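User: Thanks for the earlier help. One more: 4-hydroxybenzoyl-CoA reductase, gamma subunit. Can you show the sequence and predicted structure together?

Assistant: Of course, both are below.
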Amino acid sequence: MRRLLQPDRRRPGHGELPPPRGRHHGPPHADLGLGVVPRHRRHHGGSCVMRVNFTVNGRPQEADDVWEGESLLYVLRERLGLPGSKNACEQGECGSCTVRLDGVPVCSCLVAAGQVEGREVVTVEGLADYAKQRSCGTGACGTSPQDSHTGEGTELSPIQQAFIDAGAVQCGFCTPGLLVAADEMLERNPNPSDADIREALSGNLCRCTGYEKIMDAVRLAAARQGEAV
Ligand code: FES
Ligand code: FES
């Protein structure tokens, strides 16, 4: 599939390093506000650590003793107990770690944890609740009785159900990232063309399905979304 060039993503199989950054170039991901780092820094055992406060799936979280080189993906999986976002390449190549940062899909392996201070993150665990809140407007459906933080016991989101119904899940390693990316695309584009779908998912690699069932799943979710309005 053709991949979309975005600041947090690189082409699959793209072997070249990006050009060197100019001396006066701004911080990476400046458009996402990722140049901001938390003030709570201290030195611990010779290295600089910090406390990071941010929101994950609607719940305030505090991660302590975060090393300044630690990725958002590591914090989500290892510190917050949210293993849904997968770690396959840690180089921004596969998209399996895709989460939403202030609504924008990013590769969480490429985002330094310190840069999410004060930001909102949605992971695949929170996708069902996120989609539900969206479909209900601003909380018109009330609060979900299940745990929207970990996703345990929650109903599946429409895109998750569509992936199951279309048989778009095989080993499942790529699935969380694809779900987050597809859900974001359907939020901003309820009637996507095949080209729109391919572009939205171009940063996500799947080694099993050949992508056709994934395309079917997103088409199905879009059709169901259209019927529901
Ligand atoms: S693990 Fe982040 S893009 Fe592959
Ligand atoms: S289902 Fe196995 S990598 Fe996509």
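User: Great, one quick takeaway?

Assistant: The helical segments are 72-79, 127-135, 158-165, 175-188, 194-200, 212-228.
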